[in-house]
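User: tokens in, sequence out, please.
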């Protein structure tokens, strides 16, 4: 093995330059990695293994462009990666004690301090169970939100929150997804 003709100081300085270059490249990679759409990658891998999720006694198909933020036996949170819309599906054992008509009356007539108006009401039969959906208009001052609250006879609550300023143009997508629920 041939000995390095440089002095010890020059060898140390060369090693420090290499270390600084490695640290700089690593820092740049970490900064650039924050801009990579990891949710899309995670959603792609999730859809390779799954097509649907189970909440309570329902199987919910998840479209390809939707990302599952939370998945447990009683709560599922979904986000549309293209539009930013969100859906939550909750199995609530206490909601079955409140009839759909009583829930409808509470939702249609909120307290005067809440700036929410109910604009429409729809009823669906999904796998033999009645789902009641109430469309709302929420005035948040700087924006209007148009969420949809749905509840089934069996205690499943489905809430749709369209992205800010999306208006009502995504409601049809939500209702199509809701009608694809399957009872287990």
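Assistant: Sequence out:
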């Amino acid at each position: 093995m041939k000995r390095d003709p440089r002095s010890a100081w020059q060898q140390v300085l060369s090693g420090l330059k290499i270390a600084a270059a490695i640290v700089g490249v690593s820092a740049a990679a970490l900064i650039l990695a924050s801009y990579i759409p990891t949710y899309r990658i995670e959603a792609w891998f999730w859809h390779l293994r799954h097509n649907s999720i189970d909440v309570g006694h329902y199987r919910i198909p998840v479209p390809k462009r939707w990302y599952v933020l939370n998945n447990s036996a009683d709560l599922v949170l979904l986000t549309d990666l293209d539009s930013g819309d969100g859906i939550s599906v909750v199995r609530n054992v206490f909601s079955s004690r409140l009839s759909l008509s009583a829930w409808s009356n509470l939702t249609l007539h909120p307290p005067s301090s809440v700036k929410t108006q109910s604009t429409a009401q729809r009823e669906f039969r999904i796998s033999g169970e009645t789902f009641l959906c109430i469309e709302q208009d929420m005035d948040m001052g700087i924006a209007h939100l148009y969420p949809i609250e749905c509840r089934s006879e069996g205690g499943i609550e489905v809430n749709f929150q369209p992205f800010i300023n999306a208006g009502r143009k995504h409601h049809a997508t939500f209702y199509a997804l809701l009608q694809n629920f399957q009872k287990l």
